[in-house]
């Protein structure tokens, strides 16, 4: 039996992600992540979430959104519920706050460009553009 190559595994994972999205949509869920291990055989894992949209149209059940709700206070945001999904201007574009990735030290905030739907990482200074930001409670300023 031949070992599976990386490109074959990527093709299979892409097909599995499409199939899983179709099946989960029937049950009101979305694909969180599809991952696989390959070699002599192939093992895959599908993670699914049931979306919980907030008032601003952001799925509060994603990892980034839950992290934002739990840790946004460290960046001076006193009301994370109001700030998640809030829109603001950055570099002449309208952006929407999607979440927070604490493992990304330089670019912890995850934002989405409203016009195109593209997702970007951005620096912690963007917190000052969000509603309910308080410079007095911004712990990230201690490290600058």
Question: What secondary-structure arrangement, pairings included, does this model have?
Answer:
Blueprint: H1 6-26, E1 30-38, E2 42-49, H2 63-71, E3 75-77, H3 80-83, E4 87-90, E5 93-100, E6 109-113, E7 119-122, E8 133-138
Antiparallel strand pairs: 1-2, 3-8, 4-5, 5-6, 6-7
What does this structure look like?
The N and C termini lie far apart (56 Å). Strand 5 and strand 6 form a beta hairpin. This protein has three helices and eight strands, in the order αββαβαβββββ. The strands form three sheets. It has a four-stranded antiparallel beta sheet with strand order 4-5-6-7. The chain has a two-stranded antiparallel ribbon with strand order 1-2. The mean pLDDT is 86. It is elongated. Helix content is 24%, strand content 33%. It is of the alpha+beta class and 144 residues long. The chain has two domains: 44 residues, no CATH class; 81 residues, SH3 type barrels (Roll).
């Amino acid at each position: 039996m031949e070992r599976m190559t990386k490109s074959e595994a990527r093709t299979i994972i892409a097909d599995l992600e499409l199939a899983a999205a179709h099946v989960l949509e029937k049950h009101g869920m979305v694909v969180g992540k599809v991952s696989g291990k390959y070699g002599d055989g192939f093992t895959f894992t599908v993670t699914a979430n049931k979306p919980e949209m907030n008032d601003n149209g952001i799925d509060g059940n994603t990892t980034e959104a839950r992290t934002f709700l739990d840790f946004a206070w460290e960046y001076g945001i006193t009301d994370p519920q109001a700030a998640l999904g809030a829109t603001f201007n950055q570099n002449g574009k309208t952006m929407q706050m999607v979440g927070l990735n604490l493992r990304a030290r330089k670019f912890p905030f995850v934002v989405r460009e409203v016009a195109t739907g593209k997702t970007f990482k951005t620096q912690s200074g963007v917190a000052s553009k969000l509603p309910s930001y308080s410079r007095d409670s911004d712990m990230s300023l201690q490290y600058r």
